[in-house]
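look at this record:
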Amino acid sequence: MMEFKASIFTVAVLTIVLSSPAFAQKHKSPPAPATPILPPSPAPAPGPHHVDLADLLSVAGPFHTFLEYLQKTDVLGTFQNQANSTKEGITIFVPKDSAFAALKETTFANLTKDQLKSLILYHALPKFYSLAEFNKLSSQNPVPTFAGSQYTLNLTDNMGSIHVKSMWSNPKISSSVLSTYPVAVYEVDKVLLPMQIFKSEPPLAPAPAPAPDAKESDVAPSPRSTKSASAKAKDEEKNSSYQAGVGIVNYLIIAVSSGLMMLLW
């Protein structure tokens, strides 16, 4: 009986101790660590902008001759792959149709297939350059082109006027056709002519004959002046004969009149 009472007392004491605030504070479980709040992940960077060079050059300006050479030499595929499958991008200097027309027709007709391909490759840099970057790029002259390390250009930026100098030409960038990574296309007013292909300066096409000035002799003659010289001579002869005939008739009339007067007297 005494053991039973002792057990009850022990349970009561333990209940009081365990339920006391001091015991609960002392043996309180540590708080669970807070879940960290992570910043939102950045949106993925947009991929390179795809540019169809054939479509661009066919509608952007008078670049039909250059586009024909791109397709003829299969360089179009090389440029297209560089534009859309590399991180470097591409910069292309495109001569206008008038730039090709300014050179003699035999300038390109006498080139071999490899020379013509190198000439077209010479018009591009294997990296994207905006207009603002040409100032820095000019300090790295000479700059290698797509045609190879021996085919170089010298770029100069003079107060915003950018020139692309080859051995036999120094064209100016006249406008920006496209300047959005990874493709930069700039219009130039002359064909780039490297010394590796042209040992001397290619001849220019003959200048077109000037239009004749409008003179009095070029003005359409009036109907009266359309007669030939012989017709005019005949007219003058007829007029002289007529005047002579009139003179004879007048003389006869005067003579007859004088005779009648004498008879009357």
